[in-house]
Design a protein that fits this description.
Low-confidence stretches of chain B: 325-330
Shape of chain A: elongated
Mean pLDDT of chain A: 88
Largest interface: A-B, 107 and 106 residues
Number of helices of chain A: 20
Number of domains of chain B: 4
CATH superfamily of the largest domain in chain A: Bira Bifunctional Protein, Domain 2
Number of domains of chain A: 2
Low-confidence stretches of chain A: none
Radius of gyration of chain B: 34 Å
Distance between the termini of chain A: 51 Å
CATH architecture of the largest domain in chain B: 3-Layer(bba) Sandwich
Oligomer: heterodimer
Largest sheet of chain A: 7 strands, mixed
CATH topology of the largest domain in chain B: Phenylalanyl-tRNA Synthetase, Chain B, domain 3
Number of strands of chain A: 19
CATH class of the largest domain in chain A: Alpha Beta
Strand order of the largest sheet of chain A: 10-14-15-19-18-17-16
CATH architecture of the largest domain in chain A: 2-Layer Sandwich
Largest sheet of chain B: 11 strands, mixed
Shape of chain B: elongated
Number of helices of chain B: 15
Structural class of chain A: alpha+beta
Radius of gyration of chain A: 44 Å
């Protein structure tokens, strides 16, 4: 049998007849007590030794306690000074006695507070008396201090309690382990136990020399916590965005891209939002001061959009009866929705004319002049998607979105008829929350109006929808305050510790 | 979204459905798209709805929609009107900015408290929506008994006069006041006048309406006290002025329909412009055509023509199949068959939301019940894919995360202070991050006044806000940065920027360089870092990031004054460069 050196030493020292404490074994083997304890546990697990545990109390003097062993307890010094001053016959003024006793500082209070308690006399109205029958030599507290200082044991619990309260002693309990060789241990010793070499680190030397074959690897405490590391992680909002992108690519959607700062023409006018629409005031959107105007808009498209606003589209169409100027259309805003990208793509301006069928999407940032609160940011991500085909029905719209939301655990989609200036019919989408089961709004959708499509040169159907990515994230992760996640107020601890959702 | 307060008791009375309890009413209203938001102190329903059906801004209009929903009414209803006795004469002096007027006379109205309240609410809600806060259209309602008509210029009857006067040209006692004021006084001394002063403040002449006694209305600001409407009023004059004839005429239709539902009689008014004459209100229907095929195609259901006509009628519209029944004159869609029957649909004048025949298809769908439709996945095939830029961005992000960076996502809007001053640079410096910023007009918050020109300021802010969190804090962001650039169509150059910081007790230039090298190696680009100066970084420990020979960024140890400015008590090394350099 090969065992680590410390275990061999313990086995050799332990006896089958006489229990030995860990301290005794440590002294005999010249090993640190903690090493012996470790070895004893290993040997006990292997049933080569048996261990009995007992609790032992140890009492030691504190620094203050030690000074009183030689100098005497303050109350006894006070008593002796009181006797000298004749306080056993008549009350003596206290200041004089204290001066004579030589007590100073905190010791005075200690003496006074224990004096009467222990029956050395009384203190009243600034005068002190001494009881002539008191006997300082039989003071149990003084006796106990002397005994402890002489390494003798003290059995009187009451006295020890009192000394502990006075901070003159420390009492502690410790476990004393007594070790005895078992039958197996005796057998092993008779068969012979050799020392195995233990190593801490696996080194290149160890491996190349072949020494590793003969060594024992020191065991680690594998249950202990290691130092924390954080590593890097993709931002959870990006993770969610990428999940959405993967899902949409899988459904045949192609990604769009375009400017964040764009002309109102692309953001609002192409969407058939009248120029006097309440949402087009700067109270709702971020207009730019510099630059304030787009350099150029496609002339023929501007004319068609203007015509749609003023006169409508088709024989029976009507316009808005609102003023329309190119000057307003040229103003630059931070886009309030990514539908501006859809307009750029549908018009052919982004990447040439499109032929149905097409599916496009984007998951990009939009800017709204909103009040900041736990669910609203000035910047957030919008999921935008649309399908272009010759003939699309409301049922196709419902089928597409049902499929999409199911990918995120949002089921039982409901379609509430709604109004948007740019779609008809329009629907607000409601779905069942994946964990709470509540009915929550998850998006807005519809078929683009002909007043949107015809000026863009699109002569088939296009259905579209939008949704805030943050809303999807909050539904999936259960966050309550979006500000912890997005922006410079982000809490690194939250980002580091958020559960990975896959 | 508009919110309308409606007394459920009034709804029961006006629909004739006493048996409906409040809960049933709420469900029926939800079916119309009117959401119950709560109750007023008086127990009225507060109903919120999308701002298309402005005819539902009154309890009378909502009751009308409910009666269609219940099947009590079908098809178009047009109130009878009596012939005009009153004329509104429009003067040459009318302000050019507000030339249009319309009106109606209402007789035999029974205005109890509720009816008067509903009328005032309808007026306010119409002002807020169609009227664009009175700028586009403003309503004035007067007690006709208090008016003394002047003899009409043409024919018999009475007239009032819409004109324009000098701001101090006349005096009258406005509502909620006891003293005579000029219009100019009203704008400065009357609370309502102050609210709407901006609407006419710039006008040379102020809009004014006169009867034979004198000035009685100062639209769009306030009416005179003399003609104030009360529960005792039995005959009303409704006038509307605005910047667009169509808009004020439609607002008038909605008001006339509501008063008709209260049992009043509408009497037309002659509006006499210098060059033309109108008879108002014009409650006639307008006709729109929509093909059977388009309805079936859009809703995705096969219908019998009778069924479609029935659905139209249940929506308060009249429809008949056009003679000949073929053609698709209303459509220029590529896939329209030529032989589909066409419906000619009569649309009542209060339906201001109907701009196109497709709006009628929505009515058919709602009447049929959109939620009864079975979803179906569209049978068209397309190939999906990611944009190149977004793929590159993901690849760079994956690499940085692999190098141990926490990926961050910050706002693109920032303040000048954060973007420039706290980083020790100015917009005109010759340094990475220094550029002419795209600025926001009249920003609300001093924290968000421009688009950031670089991303390192955002990362420093995150470090600043997380000094209580454990280190190391290695942060990276790939995001938008922008600046003004006249050569761009929008005037703004937008680009993706890659920024990283290492905040740790022993962070050094070398740590940042090691990571930058790893990025360059993985994207197979040639990286050089010639020394440079940059106020954000420590001299002698700063280099330009030169990728494939082009200077695209900066790397270095952040200057102690920037660190202290951000309350940081340990070194930070960082870099930032244009993402497109890795393409």
């Amino acid at each position: 049998m090969k065992l680590p050196a410390s275990q061999v030493a313990v086995l050799e020292t332990a006896s089958a007849n006489e229990a030995q404490t860990v301290e005794q074994l440590a002294e005999a083997t010249d090993l640190p007590p903690e090493t012996v304890t470790g070895a004893v546990f290993e040997l006990a697990d292997a049933e080569l030794v048996s261990v009995e545990e007992a609790t032992e109390e140890s009492v030691s003097l504190t620094d203050e306690g030690a000074t009183y062993v030689d100098g005497g307890l303050p109350e006894i010094r006070l008593y002796e000074a009181a006797l000298d001053a004749g306080a056993d016959e008549a009350a003596v003024e206290m200041g004089r006695v204290i001066g004579q006793s030589g007590l100073e500082g905190a010791a005075v209070d200690i003496a006074l507070s224990n004096y009467a308690r222990k029956g050395y006399g009384s203190i009243e109205n600034g005068e002190i008396t001494a009881d002539p029958d008191a006997d300082p030599d039989s003071d149990p507290e003084a006796a106990a201090l002397s005994a402890l200082s002489a390494d003798e044991s003290v059995d009187e619990d009451g006295v020890l309690d009192q000394l502990e309260r006075r901070d003159l002693v420390d009492r502690s309990e410790s476990t004393v382990r007594s070790v005895t060789l078992t039958g197996d241990g005796v057998t092993a010793m008779m068969e012979g136990v050799e020392t195995a070499e233990t190593v801490d680190r696996i080194t290149p030397e160890l491996l190349t020399s072949g020494e590793w074959e003969d060594v024992e690897f020191a065991e680690y405490n594998v249950e202990a916590d290691a130092a924390e590391i954080n590593g890097g992680k993709e931002h959870i909002l990006r993770q969610t965005a990428n999940r959405v992108k993967d899902t949409l690519v899988g459904m045949g959607f192609e990604e769009m891209e375009g400017p964040h700062a764009d002309a109102e023409f692309w953001i609002n006018d192409c969407l058939f939002m009248p120029q006097d629409h309440p949402a087009r005031t700067h109270w709702d959107q971020f207009a730019l001061e510099n630059p304030s105007e787009i350099a150029e808009l496609p002339e023929d498209l501007v004319e068609r959009v203007r015509d749609a606003h003023l006169n409508g589209v088709g024989e029976d169409g009507e316009g808005y009866h609102s003023p329309w100027t190119e000057e307003v259309a040229k103003g630059i805003d931070l886009r309030g929705h990514t539908t501006s990208l859809s307009m750029r793509y549908l018009s052919g301006y982004a990447q040439g004319d499109l032929e149905p069928p097409e599916r496009f999407f984007s998951v990009e940032k939009v800017y709204r002049n909103d009040t900041l609160d736990p669910t609203h940011l000035l910047e957030f991500f919008q999921i935008e998607g649309w399908v272009m085909a010759d003939d699309l029905s409301v049922r196709d719209l419902m089928g597409t979105f049902t499929e999409f939301y199911e990918q995120f655990g949002i089921t039982d989609l409901e379609f509430k008829p709604h109004y948007n200036p740019y779609t008809e019919p329009s629907f607000e989408l409601f779905g069942t929350h994946p964990t709470t089961g509540e009915l929550v709004e998850v998006g807005n959708s519809g078929m683009f109006r002909e007043e949107v499509l015809r000026p863009l040169g699109v002569d088939c159907d296009v259905m579209a929808w939008g949704l805030s990515l943050e809303r999807l994230l909050m539904l999936m992760y259960g966050f309550e305050d979006i500000r912890d996640v997005h922006g410079t107020l982000a809490d690194l601890e939250l980002l580091r510790n958020t559960e990975v959702i896959h | 979204m508009p919110v309308v307060d409606v007394d459920p008791e009034e709804l029961r009375e006006l629909t004739g459905h006493d048996e409906k309890d409040d809960e049933e009413l709420k469900t029926d209203l939800f079916g119309l798209g009117l959401e119950f938001e709560g109750r007023t102190e008086e127990g009225e329903f507060q109903l919120e709805f999308a701002p298309d059906r402005l005819d539902r801004l009154s309890v009378e209009g909502i009751a009308r929609s409910l009666r269609y929903q219940y099947g009590d009414d079908r098809g178009v209803y047009v109130p009878n009107t009596n012939d005009a006795e009153w004329t509104i004469e429009v003067d040459e002096d009318v302000p050019d900015e507000r030339p249009y007027v319309t009106g109606a006379v209402i007789r035999g109205v029974d205005l109890d408290e509720e009816a008067l309240e509903s009328l005032i609410q309808l007026q306010e809600k119409l002002h807020a929506t169609m009227g664009r806060k009175r700028a586009k259209g403003a309503i004035g309602i007067h007690d006709l008994a208090m008016l003394k008509g002047a003899p009409a210029r043409k024919g018999e009857g009475n007239s009032i006069r819409y004109t324009g006067i000098e701001p101090d040209g006349d005096r009258f006692v406005p509502l909620d006041s006891n003293s005579e004021m000029t219009p100019a006084d009203v704008l400065t001394d009357h609370p309502t006048g102050e609210t709407y002063a901006d609407l006419v403040g710039e006008y040379e002449r102020y809009p004014a309406i006169y009867d034979d006694i004198g000035l009685f209305s100062f639209p769009p600001v306030i009416n005179g006290k003399r003609t104030e409407v009360s529960t005792d009023s039995r005959e009303l004059l409704v006038e509307m002025t605005g910047t667009d004839q169509w808009t004020v005429d439609r607002m008038l239709s909605i008001v006339c329909y509501a008063l008709d539902a209260r049992g009043a009689t509408v009497e037309t008014v002659t509006v006499e412009y210098p060059d033309r004459e109108l008879v108002r209100p014009d409650l006639s229907t307008r006709e729109k055509s929509v093909s059977h095929d388009r309805i079936e195609g859009l809703i995705g259901v096969d219908f019998d023509p009778e069924e479609v006509v029935d659905l139209f009628e249940r929506s308060g519209l009249d429809a008949e199949t056009a003679e000949g029944g073929v053609g698709s004159q209303s459509s220029d869609r590529r896939s329209e068959p030529a032989d589909s029957p066409v419906y000619e649909v009569d649309v009542p004048s209060y339906r201001v939301d109907v701009l196109h025949p497709l709006d009628l298809v929505d009515d058919v769908g709602r009447a049929y019940g959109f939620n009864d439709l079975e979803p179906s996945y569209p049978d068209v095939s397309t190939v999906g894919g990611r944009h190149d830029r977004s793929q590159l961005e993901d690849a760079v992000r994956d690499l940085l995360v692999g190098l141990g960076f926490e990926d961050l996502l910050n706002f693109h809007m920032i303040s000048e202070t954060e973007n420039f001053e706290r980083m020790r640079i100015g917009p005109d410096d010759d340094a990475v991050g220094a550029a002419d910023p795209a600025t926001i007009r009249e920003p609300y918050s001093e924290d968000y006044t421009m688009l950031r020109t670089w991303a390192l300021p955002s990362l420093l802010m995150v470090l600043e806000n997380n000094t209580h969190r454990s280190y190391p804090q290695d942060l990276a962001e790939i995001g938008l940065a922008a600046h003004v650039d006249d050569s761009e169509n929008t005037g703004v150059a937008e680009r993706r920027t890659v920024a990283g910081v290492l905040a740790r007790h022993d962070a050094s230039y070398e740590d940042a360089k090691a990571r930058l090298q790893a990025v360059a190696r993985n994207f197979d680009v040639d990286l050089e870092t010639p020394p440079t100066d940059h106020p954000t970084f420590v001299d002698g420990r700063t280099a330009a990031v030169v990728i494939d020979g082009e200077s695209v960024g900066v790397i270095g140890e952040v200057h102690p004054s920037v660190l202290v400015e951000h309350d940081l008590e340990l070194p930070v090394a960082g870099f930032e460069f244009r993402m497109d350099a890795l393409e």
